[in-house]
Amino acid sequence: MRASLPVTLLLSSLLAACAAMKEDLPPSKHISQSGPLKVHPGLLGQPVPAELQSETQPATTSQPSQNNLPAKDAPPTAPESSIRMDQTGLRTQRSVYFDYNSAGMKADYDPALRAHARYLVANPKARVRIEGNADERGSSDFNRQLGLKRAETVRNTMIGHGAPKKQVVIKTLGEDKPKLKGHDEESWAENRRADVVYEKED
């Protein structure tokens, strides 16, 4: 009986301390929500109401997350252009970057290509050309084939998201038009890519 008395006192002290800490914490406005779970319409590919756009619209210079890419392989910030942005702002992402000697696309680029596909569906007169590129390593013929495979990967992904086939064409540039002309990993990473080039926009 005596042994349980210190345990009881200890538990009472802990409960009192927890209650005191809870009183000091301000209530969070982000955690509680009454009613059914609400999902932002932009996540569902639906139009975003004007009252939500000021809070959720990304800046024109923002870049989609590239969490799975090493820093040296991350694409540079998209340059300013005259192209109109869609609801999610993802059409500023114009380049898809690839690993060395690979035409496999990272999942990070899927949301941007989905946004391009949505734009093409909504604008039947728009046309895009996917230009596949490779770094300088390898023979010229090999790099042209690799660039072609990368362009095909991007085209097939966009078509898989609903883009009409007649609105998306491909072209390989191989190693002929590098973004960076250095002979190091930073330059090679920039040149292993496929670019989405709008030939015609509505």
Walkthrough of the structure:
With 202 residues, the chain is α+β, with helices and mostly antiparallel strands. The protein has a domain at 88-202: 60s Ribosomal Protein L30, Chain: A (2-Layer Sandwich). Helices cover 34% and strands 12% of the residues. It is built from five helices and four strands, in the order ααβαβαβαβ. The chain has helices at 4-24, 50-56, 110-122, 140-160, 185-191, and strands at residues 95-97, 127-133, 168-174, 193-200. It has a four-stranded mixed sheet with strand order 1-4-2-3. β2 (127-133), α4 (140-160) and β3 form a beta-alpha-beta unit. The longest helix has 21 residues, at 4-24. The chain is elongated and about 85 Å long.
Structure in a nutshell:
The chain has 202 residues and is of the alpha+beta class.
Rg for CA atoms: 25 Å
Query: What does the average pLDDT come to?
Result: 75
The helix tally amounts to: 5
Say what the CATH topology of the domain at 88-202 is.
Answer: 60s Ribosomal Protein L30, Chain: A
CATH class category of the domain at 88-202 = Alpha Beta
Strand content: 5-15%
Helix content: 25-40%
* Main beta-sheet strand count, sense and barrel state: 4 strands, mixed
Q: What low-confidence regions span 5 or more consecutive residues with pLDDT below 50?
A: 28-35, 54-85
